[in-house]
Amino acid sequence: MMNMRRTISAILVGICALVSANAQAQTLFPVTSPNGSVSLSLKLKEKSLYYEVEKNGVNVLVEAPIRFTIDGSELCNSVDILSSDSYKTDNTYPIRGSHSLAVDKSNGRTFKLQNTILKINFTIEARVYNDGVAFRIILPGKQGEMRVPDEHTIFTLPKGSIVWYHDMYCHYEGIHQKKEISEIMQGEWAAPPVTVQLPGKIGYLCITESALMNYAGMSLQANGKNGFETKLGHAQPAGYPFAHDYSLAEAQRLSQPATLAGTITTPWRTIIIASDLNELVNSDLITNLAPAPDKRLFPKGIQTDWIKPGRSVWCWLDGGARTVEGMKEFSKAAGELGFEYNTVDAFWYRWTDEQLKDLVDYSSQFGVKIWLWRHGRDMRDPQKRKELFERCHRLGVVGLKLDAFSHESKEFIDLYQACLKEAAEYKLMLNIHGSNKPAGEVRTWPNEMSREGIRGLEYGKNQYEWSTHNTTLPFTRLIAGAGDYTPVVFGERRLETSWVHQIATALVFNSSVIFFGSHPKTMLDNPAVKLLKQIPATWDETVVLPSSRIGEVAAFARRSGKTWFLAVLNGQNEHSLQFPLSFLGDGWYEGMVLNDRPADAASIKIERVFCRNTDALTGRMRVGGGYIVMFTPKE
């Protein structure tokens, strides 16, 4: 017995010595995904907090510091770990996006910490999924206690990583660049989501945020050391859209960091990790981390009865009489297309209640409801918001397109949240234009049907390659959530893209209400009108096909109900690609095929095929072309 006690004592002494030695260098706290493939490790080095992320034992984010200041003092230095607790999430919920049912399954851990110099206790919460990781900081505070937070956490990429990003000059409406991480110069801005192709065959990574509320939005700035530094809204440059709509004095005022009351909870810093583009597009990470909807406002979540996805006509892009009678013609044409909505632009400001109600009532006989455009500047006054929302509800308007915010300061984030909440109280859907990126709002606020924060066809006839842009967006900006690109035009605005390419954008780009750019009569006269009428606004299933390459080809198979669509966007090289139809269900399908005509981008060749899931089809696409098949099951 005495010998056994001596042996145990020796072992304990050895363990204590090892822990003590390691503590001087670093302490590891790994959180692993349910399947064990992904891990996030929180490290304490010389009492400062660091983290790293691995997939299958390989770094996808290299060790880097977590930096958070409160009232100018660094919180994540001089840190002691007090305790940690683990938890799990394992549930599903309905969602709108690449599929209709989201899966939330993760391992989580909360770390209770103390800054020993400031004598401040705080928490880092980490959550790890099979397809990514997320972390956030929670700083308790007393009611009415006012403090100023800021962040400078670093995201360091492995050498050889390829990055797709755009700057902040046009806020979130930029053109993506593709660069190797070492080529990105110190000081360059990157608007999340930032998509990365990792070296070797690891796959892809996407950095953004979720649950953005009561806080400033996050952008990224290159540090010249293979990484990006977190920059909150006050530190971001005021882009051209904000300068166009607001004053220099306003921009200077918003460049000061925000003061927050009480407990401070940062948004989740989210890193999607995917083996391929299909996993990237189908990730639920961002909505998993967003709060569930308030049942008092949304008793059935996204299925609440007054929230109706659909398609809308709109006159701003492709012309139309900007009068009550002109909008009646648009509503009638929308009804012929089977579309649910007509969005009326700013000229309605001059209308009386009687004129607006006349349009609402006239449109209803065609099954069409009315949305209205409104400048975001008018939303900053709570009383004006209430009056607008009450008027719309009283007159039968179902949605508002609120425009021209273009800033990510806490003040504007609070404004987005106020608009969404108060609109829901009046049972109004919203499309937020001139906006920042989405960050899970589709889950928390199901009445947000789309938001811009994307360079779409409103940018007109500028001389850049739409086809490269359009084959990049599904794997970059649209990973964050719905984007109102205002798709589909058939005139000069489409530049080098073909008619088939244009129609395919409405199938590939997610938006729970699709606001079509084309004049409705132009769509009715198009040879592909039968397919245009069938384009869904929501999807039950999405498969990104292996032939997809960021900036070159975006090939999507998508299901709505029993109908499948194969939609392909082609970039700057001609392609002849074979598409196996293994995504189809059993049995025979009839396919309506839309092909490019090599000699004429402004035309469509339409064919009919019969096929099964053991077959394959070949799409031949011109530069800027496309390929579409609508598959209907044969009964």
Helix content: 10-25%
- Our Rg estimate from Cα atoms comes to 26 Å
CATH architecture of the domain at 23-289: Distorted Sandwich
Distance between the termini: 80 Å
The low-pLDDT segments are: 1-25
SS-derived structural category: alpha+beta
Q: CATH topology of the domain at 23-289, anyone?
A: Beta-galactosidase, Chain A, domain 5
Mean pLDDT across every amino acid position: 95
The geometry reads as globular
Q: Could you give a short account of the major beta sheet?
A: 10 strands, antiparallel
Organism: Bacteroides intestinalis
Cofactor: Ca(2+)
Protein name: Glycoside hydrolase
Domain Glycosyl-hydrolase 97 C-terminal oligomerisation: 538-631
Structural notes for this entry:
The protein is an alpha+beta fold and 635 residues long. It has a domain at 23-289: Beta-galactosidase, Chain A, domain 5. Strands 7, 8, 9, 10, 14, 15, 17, 18, 22 and 23 form a ten-stranded antiparallel β-sheet that branches. Strands 29-28-27-26-25-24-30 form a seven-stranded parallel β-sheet. Strand 3 and strand 4 (58-65) form a beta hairpin. The model is unreliable at 1-25 (pLDDT under 50).
Topology:
Blueprint: H1 2-25, E1 27-32, E2 38-45, E3 48-55, E4 58-65, E5 68-70, E6 73-74, E7 79-94, E8 101-115, E9 120-129, E10 132-139, E11 146-147, E12 149-151, E13 154-156, E14 162-165, E15 177-180, E16 189-190, E17 194-197, E18 204-210, E19 218-222, E20 227-232, H2 240-245, H3 248-254, E21 260-261, E22 264-265, E23 268-274, H4 277-281, H5 285-289, E24 310-314, H6 324-337, E25 341-344, H7 353-364, E26 369-375, H8 382-395, E27 399-403, H9 410-425, E28 429-432, H10 441-444, E29 448-451, H11 466-472, H12 499-508, E30 513-515, H13 520-525, H14 529-532, E31 541-544, E32 553-560, E33 563-570, E34 575-580, E35 589-597, E36 600-611, E37 616-621, E38 626-633
Parallel strand pairs: 24-25, 24-30, 25-26, 26-27, 27-28, 28-29
Antiparallel strand pairs: 1-2, 2-3, 3-4, 5-6, 5-12, 7-8, 8-9, 9-10, 10-22, 10-23, 11-21, 13-20, 14-15, 14-17, 16-19, 17-18, 18-23, 19-20, 31-32, 32-33, 33-38, 34-37, 35-36, 35-38
Helix pairs in contact: 6-7
